[in-house]
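Two folds, back to back.
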Amino acid sequence: MKSKKEMIRIIKTAEDAFLLDATGKKNGRGAYICPSRTCLEQAVKSKGLERSFKQPIPKEVYEALEKEMEALEAR
């Protein structure tokens, strides 16, 4: 287990959009993962995000989250 400050928050907005929230301050229902692509891949494989948000998540959302994660890793 890591503290929230070491994790990246994935949020679902009121408009049903999924975003990475590196600041942890955006409004919306959130789930936390560690800041690496492998954690995101593991969350996809285990359907952890689907359980957290209690709904199926489209493949396009995972692709967008992966691109955002790559941008964060490049910083």
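---
second:
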Amino acid sequence: MKKISLAGQILIGLVLGIIVGAIFYGSPTIASYLQPIGDIFLRLIKMIVVPIIVASVIVAVAGVGDIKQLGKIGGKTILYFEIVTTIAIIVGIIAANVLQPGVGVNMGELNQTDIGTYVDTAEAKESESFIDTIVNIVPTNPIAAVAQGDMLAIIFFSLAFGLGINAIGERGKPVLAFFQGTADAMFYVTNQIMKFAPFGVFALIGVTVAKFGLASLIPLGKLVISVYGTMIFFVIVVLGIIAKLVGYSLFKLIKLIKEELILAFSTASSEAVLPKIMEKVEKAGCPKHIASFVIPTGYSFNLDGSTLYQALAAIFIAQMYGIDMSIADQLSLMLVLMVTSKGIAGVPGVSFVVLLATLGTVGIPIEGLAFIAGIDRILDMGRTVVNVIGNSLAAIVISKWEGNFKPEKVS
């Protein structure tokens, strides 16, 4: 009997989860059984993410050791991220103007969801300027940064540590061997945890469907279709053109990471696939030092799906309230989103937090978010897939840009 692949197992878990969720729609009992399974899976993934990033970045940087080369890669990476996320915002704004998903929506038919926790987080974000975000990349306490999961601070410390190991030569070899062993061990642990993925997916999707049901999508159906349609367009057209420009096939990339995309969609968690994405783009031909730097950094600076959604959702809420946004207002929205969407990957409900921090500054009522909070999980699943594809492609683009992509490494 032919063994079912991991992608097949995850897909089966997804379908069974939808069926079980639909059967037990509205029952709080099913969530009490399934939620712990899903939470355990996500906690297992979060447990390994930081050790893998620290060890991988240190090993990769110590192997290169050229601060000028690393600075060049860093500069190109940030420039690429800024260009692509700006395109994503523009695509979201254009789609909202063309499709007009908020026009004709009857707010009386919609359920409002409590968004108090997001408001608190957004207020904390608003009190932090862009300069503060840059300053906070440098950690005062690396152990605290690890404990808080502050990705940018963790990467900065790991870069500095890797350069230090390289600079001390022979004396650094035992330390380098330790981190190489740590990376290898944690990738082994990742592969074992992935065997649990179908059960985690089954539980998480089952809870989502049981809680919201499919009927909750009907009043906001136009928004859901608009968001998913625009994201599909962005992936196939925008990311497809970028891939073609660097001489790589987007569909080849999607095929390479199909298991991770199903997992990301089911869990609505980019973190759930970060270790495997780093491993797969490296096998595809990206050098370790580029894969280890670009992908974790992209989790803070290159959230294409999230920025596209934020632009579309902001104009959706304006349309819902009958607010006519001029071109100047929409340009202002674009500029604000370019700043607010950076550097807060570790914040729960990141897209919601960014929207809350943005809407008030462009004159859109933040109360409108309470109407779409109920379906945010459904939209988050799609956003996560786009974010994962965008970051995987980014590693290939930077490798190609550096003339350091070796596809013959594919096994």
